[in-house]
Amino acid sequence: MSNIAIIPARGGSKRIPRKNCKFFLGKPIIAYSIEAALQSNLFDEVMVSTDDTEIAEIATQYGASVPFFRSPKNSDDFATTYDVIEEVLNNYAKKEMTFEYACCLYACAPLIQISDIKRAFEKLKEETRDSVFPVVPFSFPIQRALHFINEKIEFVNHEFALTRSQDLEPTYHDVGQFYFMNAKTVLDKKAVLTNNSSSIILEETMVQDIDNETDWKLAELKYQLFKGNEKI
Fold first, then answer.
1. How far is CA 127 from the centre of its chain?
2. pLDDT, tens digit, for every residue of 40-58?
3. Residue 51 half-sphere exposure, CB side, CA atoms within 13 Å?
4. What domain range is 178 assigned to?
5. How many CB atoms lie within 10 A of CB 12?
6. For position 66, which CATH number holds?
7. How far is it, in rounded angstroms, from Cα 100 to Cα 86?
């Protein structure tokens, strides 16, 4: 069995400039994903897919490999996660290196936990899934979402207007930390999420999307809260 951790980290970032190498509580944010992958002892190869020399230098400094740079085609705003994974696995195949399992860990996921990566991997194998990734429940039932119609506020789904929150089916969203997958199956189906994917559920305190400076500060607070509780 051979596993690879792929950490996508291109140089361009519109909302937070140089996001992937910006310092988060004392070290580049990408370092957290690299260290989690290395310390999990799950991977034969931990690599960073980037088009940026500074990110490549940081990646190697923290123990990841950068055996090749990402193509211009997969370095723009329209490249998908699958596009990057496919390129990486195909480039390794040209070097006669293939992997049974691949895990795509996002570069801006400082709250990622080794135990969650391991939990997802076990579920992937035990349930013979194509991929497994972490999700978190929506904090409020999306069935009772509101929207504006001609400046008036209305329920999107009127049939749930009077339904109690506790009587509605829980819904979840992707937390944007990682995807653990069967490499061959994902390449064959050309998709990371398939009709045979599953998830592990995380607590909201361990999840934070980072798209702006406020998100960044919230992520730092959550990280410090977690580390503080960890010492108790």
1. 21
2. 999 999 999 999 999 999 9
3. 16
4. 3-136+172-230
5. 13
6. 3.90.550.10
7. 14
